[in-house]
Amino acid sequence: MENEVAAPPRSNLPAGDRSLLLVDDDKPFLQRLGRALEQRGFNVTTADSVAEGVAAIRAGAPAYAVVDMRLGDGNGLDVLEALRRVRDDARMIVLTGYGNIATAVTAVKLGAIDYLAKPADADEVIGALLHEPGDKAEPPENPMSADRVRWEHIQRVYELCERNVSETARRLSMHRRTLQRILAKRAPR
């Protein structure tokens, strides 16, 4: 009929499995992002801990996952690792408010396709999930300062040393207490 208006498409997702696991311990953010992703066509399962995330994966491995890096009961990378073991084709991204290059590299090694800083909105998350492997990221408008590059290097070595302060200080030829003071501070801009 003439007066009928076609309903807008729910999303531009590719056909197929639209199951998504969303893991974050910030419950208001988890609910808000979960609703927004459902409105865009995903079948969302939420979890607010590593244990719940792993249990959700055992119940049914999703095609997509959005996981916070730091959770109340552990590291979100454990959730990525559990999903990668049961579903190799899952597209995963990491959200974090504590971003650094070392954890981003670890996340990518575990199969994450992107690493987003919080707060990320649903459009950014979907853009990262559906990003084609051949597309290149835009260069940053504001490159890192020298202090930030130094801090990132220290964080990378710290992660490589499995968060052992003494070993990290030895490898960086730095006094252990100096390293502890650097690690206790926020990342420079």
Topology summary:
Blueprint lengths: L18 E5 L3 H13 L3 E5 L2 H10 L4 E5 L1 E2 L2 E2 L1 H10 L4 E6 L4 H9 L2 E6 L4 H8 L16 H15 L4 H7 L4 H9 L5
Parallel strand pairs: 1-2, 1-3, 3-6, 6-7
Antiparallel strand pairs: 4-5
Helix pairs in contact: 2-3, 6-7, 7-8
InterPro entries: ActR_PrrA_rreg, Bact_response_regulator, CheY-like_superfamily, Sig_transdc_resp-reg_receiver
Organism: Plantimonas leprariae
Protein name: ActR/PrrA/RegA family redox response regulator transcription factor
Structure description:
- With 189 residues, this protein is an alpha/beta fold.
- It has two domains: 19-129, Rossmann fold (3-Layer(aba) Sandwich); 146-184, Orthogonal Bundle (Arc Repressor Mutant, subunit A).
- 43% of the residues lie in helices and 16% in strands.
- The protein is built from eight helices and seven strands, in the order βαβαβββαβαβαααα.
- The chain has helices at 27-39, 50-59, 77-86, 101-109, 122-129, 146-160, 165-171, 176-184; strands at residues 19-23, 43-47, 64-68, 70-71, 74-75, 91-96, 112-117.
- The chain has a five-stranded parallel sheet, with helices on both faces.
